[in-house]
Specification:
The chain contains 9 helices and no strands. It has about 220 residues and is an all-alpha fold. The longest helix is centred in the first third of the chain and has 31 residues.
Amino acid sequence: MWRDALTVVGKDLRVEISSRVTTTQVAPYAVLVLILFGFAFDQNHSLLDQAAPGLFWVAVLLCSVLAVQRSYAIESADGTRDALRLSGLDPAGIFLGKAAAVAAQLVALEALLGAGVVILFGTRLHDPALLILTAVVATTGLAASGTVYGMVASGLRVRETLLPLLVLPVVAPVLLGATQAWMAALGLSHADGWRWLSLLGSFAAIYLALGAVWFSTLLEET
């Protein structure tokens, strides 16, 4: 399973590196979202400080949808999905590989967006360990759930518009938990950010398990 996962993640990342879609389309879109948020709250800097974690994760959620759509758009051409079915690769390995490829793209985007938040919004770091762990766990949950629902939507004609409708309500716990944990990590809230991190961990574990168990069925049905 792990060997197959490495094969799939290598394939997806090589395609992204050669196409440069993430760097030329998704990354500028993410930065533009932050800039627009900055303009919207420019007259109230204190409100902008409080809203910075939520704005960051809203931008990440939108980028995750684009990354998942791109991941499955690649395989909708030239019968690539049929080739995956016939390849003999472990379906759980395919799921983990695709989720890891999406997560790697999100990590790169989060690094860019994090720098943008510091530069544009002037936020300060209070608890770096909590911030980094929250980003890792939340990214895992987003990549796993996006990969599951991306496969569900990939077999439908309206997959481009259906995927956001499927994913965004489901990942509401990620938006809530990651925002609250980051507010604690940035010193903007007195809430226990580690409790919110446990919520994110539960979400990520559930979708990793669901994807590993059900991806073979989803792969065959779609």
